[in-house]
Amino acid sequence: MKTTGGTRWRGALGYNSPFMRLLENITNLLLLNFWMLLTSLPVVTLGAAMMAGDRTATRIRGGQNALVTRDYFAAFREALKQGVAWTGLVALAIALFWLDFRYLGRVAITLRLAAFNLLAIMAVVAVLVACLLVTYLSHYDESLRHAARNCVIILTHHVGWVALLALTTLLPLILLEAGPVGWWTLLYWFSFLGLGVAAWGRSVIFAQLVRRFAPAATNKGETHDR
Q1: Structure confidence at residue 85 as a pLDDT band (50, 70, 90)
Q2: How far apart are CA 22 and CA 197, in angstroms?
Q3: Long-range contacts of 92-100 (CB under 8 A, 24+ apart)
Q4: What is the pLDDT of residues 26-46, one digit of tens each?
Q5: How high is the pLDDT of residue 203?
Q6: 141 Rama class: left (phi>0) / alpha (psi -120 to 50) / beta
Q7: In the chain, how long is the greatest CA-to-CA distance?
Q8: Residues 158-206 pLDDT 10s
């Protein structure tokens, strides 16, 4: 029996068709990006916004009948305390590293190169752990200290995946080096879709990490959501 063009179009535009699911996901990410952007404006809530975004993106990606606004703000309220603490620790770390690098010139020349290399390694590790910690806490109900320790352990065993997760968040910042054109591009990217896409990307990569550091739980089909 021949399939007419009208039948093909009706199939493509059906509620459960791949095309409609794609449009639904794009719409959800646009809405998720809006809420993440809005709740990040106080700056101190950046960590909570990222945690809530990651958790909501996981629900969207898993087809769990996510209601973006409801799920996002439920996750945001739950993550607020740890998110603010994460933001404060990141700000403190940035300040300390900035001061260390600023006054590195006062160190004796014989020690300067070794001190610079050590600080650079510590900075990279801190960035990787901080990026992983956000997504980890969006999935596991643990104290900040315990979660940070687990993230360090995961980093030592799966540094490639953790680096990829961090790049998902930080790579667009390369546009800052492109001058005004890059700045405007970055502004538009994060204003409309960038935060949602980053949360989605972290969700996908973290799912791969879970399969590696918690294979037993994954094989049993257990959920890792908080």
Answers
A1: very high
A2: 13
A3: 93/126, 93/130, 97/122, 97/123, 97/126
A4: 899 999 999 999 999 999 999
A5: 93
A6: beta
A7: 84
A8: 999 999 999 998 888 777 777 788 888 888 888 888 999 999 999 999 9
Structure-token pair, residue 169: 């968040």
Chain mean pLDDT for the chain: 85
The 3-state secondary structure of the chain, one letter per residue: CCCCHHHHHHHHCCCCCHHHHHHHHHHHHHHHHHHHHHHHCCCCCHHHHHHHHHHHHHHHHCCCCCCHHHHHHHHHHHHHHHHHHHHHHHHHHHHHHHHHHHCHHHCCHHHHHHHHHHHHHHHHHHHHHHHHHHHHHHHCCCCHHHHHHHHHHHHHHCHHHHHHHHHHHHHHHHHHHHCHHHHHHHHHHHHHCHHHHHHHHHHHHHHHHHHHHCHHHHHCCCCCCC
Q: How many CB atoms lie within 10 A of CB 94?
A: 14
Distance CA 219, CA 191 (A): 38
CA torsion through residues 160, 165, 169, 172, sign? positive
* Mean pLDDT, range 100-123, rounded to an integer: 82
Distance CA 42, CA 173 (A): 20
Structure tokens at 38: 């809005």
What predicted TM-score, i.e. pTM, was given to this entire model?
0.84
| Nearest alpha carbon to residue 154 among 212, 93, 220, 217 | 212
